Structure formats: C-alpha cells, structure tokens
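Example complex used in Figure S2.
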Amino acid sequence: MFERLQDAFSGAFRKLSGKGTISESNIREAADEVRTALLEADVNYDVVNRFCEQVIADALGAEVTKSLKPGQEFIGVVQKRLVEFLSPPDDSKPGVIHVAPPPTIIMMCGLQGSGKTTSCGKLAAYLKKRGRSCMLVAADLQRPAAVDQLQIVAQQVQKEAPGGARVEFYAEPDKVAAYGEAVGVAVGVCQRAVKQAMRDKVDTVILDTAGRLHVNDDLMKELQSVHKMLTPHQVFLVVDAMTGQDAVNSAKEFHERLHVDGVILTKFDSDTRGGAAISIKEVTGAPIRFIGTGEKIDAIEEFHPERIASRILGMGDVVSLVEKAQQEVSEEEAEELQEKLARGEMTMDDFLKQLRAIRRMGPMKQLLGMLPGVGSALKDADIDDKQLNRVEGMINSMTERERKDVSLLNNSRRRRISKGSAASINEVGRLVKQFETVSKMAQQMAGLGAMGKMKALRQMQGQAQQMTAGAGGGMFKPKVGTKTVSPKAGYKKRKPKKR
Amino acid sequence: MAVFKNVVSRISKGLRRTREALTGSLRSVLAGRALDEDLIKEIEARLIQADVGVKTTRKLVDSIRTDWKAGTLTRGDDVIDHLKLQLKAMWPDADRSLQFATPENGEKTPTVILVAGINGSGKTTSVAKLANLMRKSGRTVLLGACDTFRAGAVKQLEIWSDRLDVDIVRGQEGGDPAAVAFDACDAAVARGVDVLIIDTAGRLHTQDPLMRQLTKIRDVVARRIPGAPHEVILVLDATSGQNALRQAEEFTRAIDVTGLMLAKLDGTARGGAAIAVRESTEIPVKFIGLGETPDDIELFDPEAFIEAMFADEG
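Predicted assembly (813 residues):
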C-alpha cells in the first residue's frame, strides 16, 4: 500500500534529522526527496509540484530551520499538508447520504475495469449492515454478462453479508446489446427501476452504469442523461487505486460532466502506493469516501485521511486495527472468552477460534504494519502466514477430548498429531507449550487489576519473544544480511582508541 | 433544448482544450526549437506524465542530455527520433514475435496461450481479441474459461465465443480452475485445434494463495501438453501507474510471463508503464488493445507507440 512511500519519506527525513542546523537549501533537498517519492507513488506530476511548493513554504513559515528537531518538524508539516490534500471540504456530505422520503439514489460511474460492479455489491453490503434496504440496478447494458454478474453479486450480498436489510435486484436483460448499440437505453431502465423501488419501499437505489472511457463522447452523454433524468443524490466515481498519471484526466472529465460527490478507491489491498488518491482529490475536489480492501463481498471501508496520511509517514494505523478486530470478534464473544480465561478453562478450540479471527483480519504483515513503529521494522522480516496454517493443521488433527484437555497429549498422541498434520513432533511439542503458557498468562491477566495487567503483559512479551525466537521455524524470520557499516564507523571499530 | 445543447457542446470543446493542455503534443513543443535545459526538463515532465516512471525517465533524459552536451543532438525535432531509436533497441523484433507449438513426431500439438492479470485489467476482452486475431490468421481456436471465481465471468466469455463462433470449454462457477484448464487441454488435443487460449480469474499479485493457484494452472497445462504454455500473456491496464512493475514481477515469478498485452490504450493514458516494465523485467509488449470490439487489437510496434505517446489528442 503506502509502505514504499513511507520508506522514501523516512529516507528524506533521516537526512534532515541527522543535521545540526538546517538551511533553506536543506529543506529544498528534503522536499526533492518527497517529490521523487510522490512521483513514484503515481501522484500526478503537477499535483506533486504544487504539493512540494506548499510544503516548502510551510516549512519555511514554521521556521523549521530554527527548530531543535527539524526532522520531526518537517514530518509534521508534510503530514499536515497531506491530510489537508486528502480531506473533504467541511460542508460535504458524509459516507452515503440518506434522504427522506426514500429512495436515496446513488449513481456509480467509472472507467472499464475500475471495479464498479463489485463496488456496487460492497456498498450494498455496507448499507445492509446499517439496516438500509437497497436495490441494485443493472444499467450496464454494454459489457457481456455484466447483468448476470450484478445479479449474482446481489444474491451474494443478500445471502452472505451481515445485517438484516433486504437487497433487491433490478434488470431488463432484453435491453442488453453489443458495445455502443444500446446507448441511451440505460436511462429508461433506471427510471423504471426507481419506480419499482418506490413501490417496494426500498431505502437506497444503486445504479451500476457501464464502464466507459472518458473520451467516448456518446457514452459520456448517456451518463449525463441518466444523471439529468434521475437526479441522483450522490454520484460516486470508482477509481482503481493502481491508476497512474492519467487518473486526473479521467476524473476531471467525469467530474465536469456529472459533478462527482465522492470517490471509491478500489483494489486498495494491493501494494499500490495509491498516489491517485491525492491527485484526484486535488484536481476534482471530490473526496475519497470509501476504499475497497479485498475479495470478500463486504470488504469496503470508510476512508480516513488522517489514518492514511499517518500510514504514509510510518506512524501506524492503530484505529483501523482496532476496528478490524471489532468486526471479527463480537463483544459477547470477547466477554465469554474473558470469563473462560479467568477460570483457566481456555481450550485448544478457543485458541483456534482466536487464530482464525486474526487470520480473517488479513495477512499478518499487514496487521502488524498498522502498529506504530512496526511498519519499517518489519520491512525485511519474512513473516510466514503459512506457520499459522500449520498450527491450524495440528489443532485439527487433535481429537475433541485432546482439544479440551491438552494434558492428555502423551508422546503417542503427539506422534499421531504430527503424522496427521505433517508437522514434526517438535512442532507439536512447541504448540502445546505455547498454549500452556498463553493460557496460564491469560488466567493471571484476567484476575488482575489494571496495574497488574501491565506488569503481566510485560512479562508475557518477554515470554513471547523467547517463544518466537526459540521456535526455529517460527513466524518471524529476520532476514540475515550483511550489516552496512559506514567506512568511518568501520575504521573506529577496527582501531579502538586506547589511552 | 437547443440552448442546453449549445452549452454542452461548448463545455466539451472547453474540455478538449484542457486535455490538450494536459497531455498535448510534445512534438509541437519540440518543433523548430533548439535543444536546451528547459526543453529537456519539459521532455522529462512529459515522460513522467506518460507513466514511464522516475527511474526510467531519468535514464532516458540523461542519455538525451549526454548527446546534447556532446553536440550530437541539438534540434528539438530530433529528440523523438532519438527516443524511438532507444526504445526500438529495447524491443527487438525477435522478442516481440509469437511462439507457436512445433509438431512433435509429426503430430500436431496445440499452441497454448495462457492469459492472466489483475482484476479489471481487461483479460476476458483481450482473450476475445486474441481469439479473433488467431482465427483471422486462419487458425482454429478453442477457449478455456478458467475464471470460475468472478460472478458472470464464464458467461461473459461464452457470449464472446458465440459472437466469434469459436468453441469453448467451461467449468462450473466456483469449480477448480486447474481442472478446467486440464479439460481444455484435453479437448484441444482431441479436436486438433491450432490454438488454445486460456482465460484466468483476475487476481491481485499480492494474494499468495491465488498466485499459487495460477502456478498450478500453468503446471497442469505443461503436464498435459509438453512445451505448453507457449505464450504467457500478462494483461496490463494502460492507465496503470508504477504498480505495473510489481505486477509484472509477481506474475513472472508465478508463471514466467512471456509478453504483455497493453489494454485500454484508446483513452488518454499513454501506457508508459510498459517502458518501465521492460526496463526492469525485460518482458516485451506483444499486443495492444485499442477498444471494445474484437478487432481492436494490434501487434505492438514500438515506433508507433512512442509516436502516439507524444502525439496530439485524436
């Protein structure tokens, strides 16, 4: 994601923070690094230049040069500007607006392959979770099987996404035609869909329009007429987070024709640096509202400029991490587990459940990267999610009785488990030991007050370090590389000063 | 209504101007001017705006600057030719040619083209275009619909197979794509077709399990038909930025990509990321996609590509 931008920034700041006094030319030098980093992150060329000019002006204005910690001060300046570049204007509508009387009409638009249909489904899942019924309207009459895709997506949301609200689907499959031959037909389809939605008392209507190039005048005009006839309450532009310099050209065109209210940035779970976010916001003024974060039907998150800006600057993203955890584990579940822990009754099944909850939250590296300070430290660590697979495998190879009572696990049983899960006997032994330590610690923790908890936690950290370090094939494999020693330092090392 | 129309047409005219200002012709900027530092800076900006990337751009610009200082490159008009020469050297003809199966012991083997890419890059449309291209060159074609994951993907390819009148082997939605690939290979051999084109599900290159699944598909194909896949095409969205490099690297690691298909070049995007990809991974561009119909495919021509990169809006 923004990791590389992080790297490049840290490079620039290291330069700054190493120096005693800072001159204007130092600041320009650092800003140059920022410039390269942003360009490599696909932020638009002109936007980068504007951004850097402002950062330099800010830095000079804030008298970074006179500061004791110019590096930190400079980071502050860059972060503030970054947040500002990403933030919506104060008077803009939040998330998905709600109008009374219903239906709220939302129109999706974007280039081909940006992820409109998937985003329609995710938005429906987002609304369903919040108790708002919705109707997905297949207004993409161009791409072969687009209607089928939306129908399947709608069914998936209805069946699999959490929440109780209804998800309807509206299409007129007989209106589908080859590319460019059904121009204008979408307007009628949308109008009839909205009528249907009124009859069915649906809260929100989502119009899935066909992907089109912003330079295709006919298709853009069709989009304009859908907009004019249906007067949607919100227009979302769907943009691929991996888009390069051209992002501004297409976004600008869509915006000038339709007045885009918000942007949905898709495929954000890739390792793209996502500079398009900054460009689009800057050029159109339309704020990023949502980000698509995975293959799952409800993998959509609200966009928070502060968090993204912090992430760019390597400050971690604890808020997102907590939110992710809350999504996976309900409060009751957490309380129930807490009680179990206090009674010392945690079983392998509970352990497995926890493990699975964590895994659902995303790849380990991504999760740990959200912790402050961990991001850059983890850069070279080879974190192996497969290790968790093995643990799952081992637990799955245990009988129900064994899972409830690990003390049953004698050597013969361990051998069986090792065969069943293709893990070595040592690994099984390690798992049992880890489990015992964790459950003992957990019991102590659950019975302690706040101060005691802190202490125990510290103890546990020590234990955990030992565990992972001793695990050999553990989860953390720090890359062994040659240490770089500056010539000066190396010289010092070789010739220690005596006397 | 008439008033409304008038306004609209005025707006769109205005837009066209903006577009020209944004991505307009470098050629016209260069024409008739003597090369100087300002002009070189301008060239640098244009290359970055075309998604060529900072690193590759600096390399290209440095070579221009070196020649300029040496006095061998003095006129703005010569710069594009200079770039063309460089890029042509990057993309020799031999690299861009297509590999076809050679008959084994006198028996005909189908040529297998495996198509992969991230979600929404344009794989299925590109498969249709490739099928059309092969068919027009007198070869018989079979399609393997291995995108069993995305809703409606198989149906999408089926519609294309109908329109193009080529056979298709399909699996169940949610089924094992490698199994479909195997069946498709079987069918290709049994029916004695010339070319089998396999469509796969879009996947982000960061998703390990999905990338391993792709490797498995490739391995299954290789086991069923020795020497296959003869071409492994990565479909790259021309609008993509520097992440294209990561895509090329990861897909190559999984399935040894032999060439790129640069899709969606009919917009305002210049597809310069392909240059960055070539520079760092040596994967050549083999095809370009220029529209929505099956005829909108061209074999890649570096000279035309660089010309288009600096050309006026059409």
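Residues 1-23 of chain B have pLDDT under 50 and may be disordered. Chain B has two domains: 2-89, 111-301.
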